[in-house]
């Protein structure tokens, strides 16, 4: 089995100076490192991330690379991007100094995004073996990630990870091949999963439930979960949660003499007014009318 190196080990295989990095910024799924590289030739081991390399030098350079076939030779111009798939050894050769920004995306990120995009159980993502491409979208995203690593600001991790997701979607659309698992059961909500979800919703109905919370319970991405949930129940998750809150409110209003404000909180409504609006819209009556009707004394015969 091929031993993979991490992006943090790449400097052991090149000659140059690291100019910037995201190492201390708490990013997840994406790593940025900028280098000033000396002319070099190296048979580099495979990396455990997908590599997107942006040339920031002011002048073009002759670049050569051999992966699985023969040598590729191309002019690497300022703003060009080089792609290298995960777990792909490569023999590199360049004869000029290079100013480059390396963006590394994790396997987990690419798999998760590919499953969200396709709605299928993707088992493997491979990037096309492209030595030098001109793609303004990729270049702009790579520059934005690089800029954030060099000059971090408030919300930096969230911003960089959002950019990485955009980059992943663009790569998947234009520069990738996917392998799918035949079994799609993991992307469907069967009876056992629906029971688990219903129990979770019931136990946390008074909380601020999000679609991401629910998706996490069944190990699915948000987009794939939303599609699967609607397929299983006939309605989107947010509508299902709202209906469950209305049902609980009906039960409480008909059985306990609690203040309407307290019932609203126990059902997960933002406030009493929110509950009143929804019950009026769904049932045609107000919470007060429901409670008075259910709890008024029954006349003796």
From TrEMBL:
SUPFAM superfamilies tied to this protein: Homeodomain-like (SSF46689)
PROSITE patterns: HTH_ARAC_FAMILY_2
All copies of domain HTH araC/xylS-type, residue ranges: 195-293
Pfam assignment, any one: HTH_18
Function according to Swiss-Prot or TrEMBL: Regulatory protein of the TOL plasmid xyl operons. XylS activates the xylXYZLTEGFJQKIH operon required for the degradation of toluene, m-xylene and p-xylene.
Superkingdom of origin organism: Bacteria
Protein name: HTH araC/xylS-type domain-containing protein
Keyword Transcription carried by entry: yes
Signal peptide: none
SMART domains to which the protein is assigned, alphabetical: HTH_ARAC
Record has Nucleotide-binding as a keyword: no
A GO molecular function held by the record: DNA-binding transcription factor activity
Keywords: Activator, DNA-binding, Transcription, Transcription regulation
């Amino acid at each position: 089995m091929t031993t993979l190196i991490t992006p943090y080990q790449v400097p052991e295989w090149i000659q140059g100076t690291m100019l910037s990095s995201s190492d201390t910024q708490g990013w997840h799924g994406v790593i940025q490192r900028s280098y000033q590289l000396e002319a070099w030739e190296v048979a580099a081991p495979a990396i455990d991330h997908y590599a997107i390399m942006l040339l920031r030098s002011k002048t073009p350079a002759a670049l050569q690379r051999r992966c699985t076939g023969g040598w590729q030779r191309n002019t690497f111009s300022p703003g060009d991007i080089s792609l290298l798939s995960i777990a792909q050894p490569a023999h590199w050769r360049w004869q000029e100094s290079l100013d480059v920004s390396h963006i590394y995306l994790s396997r987990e990120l690419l798999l998760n995004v590919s499953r969200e995009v396709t709605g299928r159980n993707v088992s493997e993502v491979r990037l096309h073996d492209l030595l030098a491409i001109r793609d303004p979208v990729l270049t702009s995203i790579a520059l934005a990630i690089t800029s954030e690593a060099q000059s971090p600001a408030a919300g930096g991790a969230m911003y960089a990870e959002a950019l990485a997701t955009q980059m992943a979607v663009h790569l998947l659309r234009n520069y990738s091949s996917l392998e799918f698992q035949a079994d799609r059961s993991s992307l469907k909500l069967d009876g056992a999963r629906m029971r688990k979800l219903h129990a979770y919703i019931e136990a946390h109905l008074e909380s601020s439930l999000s679609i991401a919370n629910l998706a996490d319970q069944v190990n699915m991405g948000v987009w794939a979960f939303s599609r699967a949930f609607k397929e299983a129940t006939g309605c989107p998750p947010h509508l299902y949660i709202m209906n469950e809150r209305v049902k609980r409110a009906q039960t409480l209003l008909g059985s306990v003499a609690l203040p309407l404000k307290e019932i609203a909180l126990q059902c997960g409504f933002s406030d009493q007014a929110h509950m009143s609006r929804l019950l009026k819209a769904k049932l045609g009556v107000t919470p007060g009318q429901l409670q008075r009707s259910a709890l008024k004394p029954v006349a003796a015969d």
